[in-house]
Protein: Zinc phosphodiesterase ELAC protein 2
Organism: Bifiguratus adelaidae
Amino acid sequence: MKSSVLILGTPGREGQPSIMLRFDSQNYLFNCPEGTQRVSVENRTRMVKTHNIFFTRVNWDCIGGLPGLLLTVADAGLSRLKLQGGRNLTHSIAAMRQFLYRQNIDVETLEFPLDALEYQDENIRVTPMILTRQVSSDPVLIDANSKRESLPKRRRSSSPDQDESDSLSIFEKLEYNRKVISGLFPGTSGRKSSVPTVNTTLAVKKRKIEADRPAEATAHNVPEGSLGYGDVPPVIDEVEVQAIKAAARGERRRVKGLPTTTPSEEVLCYIVRGPKDRGKFLPKLAQELGIPRGPLYGKLQRDIPITLDDGRTIQPEQVKSKPRNPRTFAVVDCPDSSYVDSLICNPMWQKFSREASEASEATKMDHGDMKLVIHLLGDQMMGNEAYAKWMESFDDSVQHILLSRDHSSRLPLYAAHTTAQLKLSLLNDRIFRVPDFASADVALSSTMNEKAPPHSVTGINQLVYQLEPTSELDHSVANEFPHPSDVERFIKPNFDGLQDYIRVAVEARQKQNLSTAHVEALLNFLRTNRSENNTWISELIKPYARKTKGGEVDLCQHRADDPYGLEVVTLGTGSAIPSKYRNVSATLLDTSSGSVLLDCGEGTWGQMVRFYGPKHIGQALRQLKCIFISHLHADHHLGTVKVLSRWAETVNTGHISVVAPLRFLTWLKEYAQVQDFGLARVNFVANENMVQGISKDSDSYKLLCTDLQLADITTTPVDHCPKAYGVAFQKASANTKDWKVVYSGDTRPCQALVDIGKDATLLIHEATFDDTKMQEAREKRHSTANEAIDVGKQMNAKAILLNHFSQRYPKLPVLSEHVSNVAISFDLMSVRIRDIQDFSKFYDALRLLYAEPEESEELE
């Protein structure tokens, strides 16, 4: 039986990677942070074979990628998924009921130690170990031989209201939340929830849309409370629906929620034992003992003793090779030094120490041979003397993989997009900024070399450790991204065949009065395979140089050069699921008085780090004033918690506004009981309360306008799903030209959006499909590229920026006519209004660059 451990991702400012244990029959995942799905797509990792996910912590750094992955694997046909972790895991999943729902998959949660003391199936036995911050010689242990009776006894459950939840036992809360989850994911078993506040009979119905439906149809045609295609039904009863509507009108009404909980600082480590090897059946030995071929061989192979005709009893071990101890590995999560005592004092580790080599064969067979320890380490943990000494307690043969931001590779995680960005930078390295390769380093630091035991390596993306049949590291598929200065390994493979594109790129740079020397040198090198010197290479890969002001990098320099004082950074330009080239929706509108995130899909924080770099991301967070969420489809908001969390850690005082459908606040409040991500400092403004024609006199709205120095913010329902909104931001300023920026979110062409966007300076509009997919655009309530352009014309918009492209179609949409004020979004692109108006100068080059059909990126 083959088995291996795969590292998915690279530790860094984005968080820790996932760890996948692979067998022929199924895979097991340990942690699922944001970006897990995109890394899987990039590296063609099969996620639909994953039936179990284990979490070391119940916080967004470990579970942030779960909602998006769950929706994707359910749509791909996965029928069951078991989620296992510590306290609050079930509450976290139930809190996602506002946007997470699939009928065809059965999702089950298991919380250690309340539900079980370990997990076991035909492949593995997983023993969790709970770490606490308490420095104690009596850590919390989980022993498979201990008795469950020591836990609190269950009380008979009832369906609680929010007011009653504090009086409920932990088991009653757990049971209630599980009933909510069973309504969200009934699976093929057709489970039904008996919780009164959960409407589990509500079915998702696709509305039939006539092919000749007028393009100007708007969300006002959608009956209140009906479900659009792909919409997630609210898992609430009619009473709660009415309460939410009343709250949106400003009435004081209680909205029901989940039973309350409190954050848990517990961390779980896992010891994973592989299958037992009871020895291989050896026919030669059976023949020597005179055993006839046939059914008796089968019994011996199944470990059943047999009796021969001559009266001899043959035991299975007489005809088998010597049994080999199971292969075992451990996943150790130690966020900071306050958990070290709880970890190293656990006697469970004694079974795998150097001294354990003298243990009995039966003991070794039960616990297995420790082959691998994967360390998920917080900052500066390798400098902890106690932790380093504990690592030395393992036998020298044990392999250690260290996943720490302090000792991680700075090489790009998403190689396909990094390469594409470098190619685009030939057109304009300010609009398409070159990633920062200068800090790329895969070597271990001197501190780590001194502290780490033998056989220690830094974990990198796609690093494999083979458990069976031979235990060893495997670098054959590791994502060791070649440095772009490497002519043979990077420049030739990635630029050869692009001579026509590079030639047109030179012409485009000349039209912009930009230097062309390094691009011409690249073109000459590809033609002749010779170069007088390689100085052009350093110029080719040099990151865009930001100007400084008062000793600090001036992030405002580009919008300061724009008469409107605006800069738009397209952080995520794809739809539905992330792909190699496009992350899901997120657009940063940077103004002279602060920045606004227009939608915040999964991975937005990582995109911000990649764009601004680790040195300047703090300044970008201090500039961030507002996050606008257009609707509650998962690809538009799953990055919000992480961005808010990083903002709260970086910005010590003040507040940040979140503008979203009212139901989003319910989700934020319920998840804030699990993790403090700064909700207390959030100024929440409901989209429902800023619709045109409604009196906008709330304190939260006024505070938002004051923060951004805006004259008005207006939302409107758009034609996509219930509670989907477009928005218009309007500014009157003495220092810059007056401007209006309109953002569509997801929508069909919508007259209501045209109405609030009249004479817009900039329209940012979705363009999910090209015109060949018009029927699909109608059915799925999206727009084509040319429909979006037509909306801009109806508005009389000065500039139009297209985004939210389908991941299944080419990276460059087909436009029916030559337009001079339309730009096509690419991830990590930075444009001003005049850049968009002049974007047509890039079209010839872009058509050459993306002339080849794009390979399929379906999640396997």
In short: The first strand starts at residue 3 and ends at 8. The chain has a mean pLDDT of 83. Residues 170-184 form the longest helix (15 residues). The radius of gyration is 29 Å.
